[in-house]
């Protein structure tokens, strides 16, 4: 069943489609609902779900038939439920990503400086959160680590999430600079690389300048006919989902080029294994 995040996005997309079909502006809908234009935008991009009363006003305005109303009302109810991640007190900007990730069938990720979250050991995840004290309060570290480990469960479930990670060699060296973390993390990477649903490639220093020297990113792909591919980019004090189809397509092209520059999966695993023997 789609997550509450996906339900919100589906409902928002339908409300935007209905508004556009009537050639109405967001300002006009805001006047109709007695709210701000920003709230209308948040509803339409799936950040929030409308209240029951707001949805009724919109459905009355668009003159929707009973059958269509029932579908939208059910979608709204599902959209307002809490996902498993809600108990972990994740930042709001990251909750949306985790919700989308839980619906994805494939994740493609490029990391410049870190081991990707879905591949991190518990010790590495804890170290990252401790260092990132400007983002994670000390008392929240263990909760954040638990959430990261909970996300990894999908890599082993029956409908295993497909993961293709391209990792800069810099991320390996930063990890091996701390021997207490390195052996376990590198061995974990080598073990995961052997799984049929996981592909790991290392982008070596020898590749020189590349298409994403400016930063890391993640692409999320969903079941056919459900939701278009989305992207996610994170920075020092936050992150955001990217839904613009042109931007997502451009990042998909960048990812493919990074794959072509990177070492083969076999060569990458050998390099990772050598790092594990430090």
Explain what this protein looks like in three dimensions.
By secondary structure, this protein is an alpha/beta fold. 52% of the residues lie in helices and 13% in strands. It folds into 2 domains: 4-79, Orthogonal Bundle (434 Repressor (Amino-terminal Domain)); 88-276, Endonuclease, Chain A (2-Layer Sandwich), CATH 3.30.870. The protein has 12 helices and 6 strands. A 6-stranded mixed sheet has the order 3-2-1-4-5-6, with helices on both faces. A hairpin with a 2-residue loop joins strand 5 and strand 6 (238-242). It is elongated and about 65 Å long. The model has no long low-confidence stretch (mean pLDDT 92). GO terms for molecular function: DNA binding. Residues 15-68 form the HTH cro/C1-type domain.
Please give the structural blueprint.
Layout: H1 4-21, H2 26-33, H3 37-44, H4 52-62, H5 66-79, H6 92-103, E1 106-111, H7 122-131, H8 141-151, E2 162-168, H9 169-176, H10 179-193, E3 198-203, E4 217-221, E5 230-235, E6 238-242, H11 245-261, H12 265-276
Parallel strand pairs: 1-2, 2-3
Antiparallel strand pairs: 1-4, 4-5, 5-6
Helix pairs in contact: 1-5, 2-3, 4-5, 7-8, 10-12
